[in-house]
Specification:
The protein is α+β, with helices and mostly antiparallel strands and about 90 residues long. It contains 1 helix and 4 strands. Strand 3 and strand 4 form a beta hairpin.
């Protein structure tokens, strides 16, 4: 993983926040346009984290596991509450 601050991009439109290529994934944040009227273009400044594809897949897998754990706990709590209601308990 490599982190870069204030990267300048010359994309004609707003850069994507996440861009996955064949070997790397780029996660951009703090994207803002900068006008350069003297040369007639708009460019972009943003922060970027560059991951290898393997790093990015691992990161996404960890996020999926966190969401699954949260969902499992939430469903268990709902099942418990439903059982309590069915039994007429507190």
């Amino acid at each position: 993983m490599k982190e870069f601050k204030n990267v300048r991009g010359t994309q004609p439109t707003r850069p994507l926040e996440v861009e996955v290529g064949p070997t790397h994934a780029y996660v951009r944040s703090n994207i803002r346009p900068v006008e350069a009227p003297s040369i007639g273009i708009t460019f972009w400044i943003y922060d970027e984290v560059q991951y290898t594809l393997a790093e990015y897949i691992q990161l996404q897998q960890e996020k999926i596991e966190e969401i699954q754990n949260f969902t499992d706990k939430y469903l268990l709590d709902l099942e418990h509450r439903l059982t309590q209601l069915e039994l007429g308990g507190a």
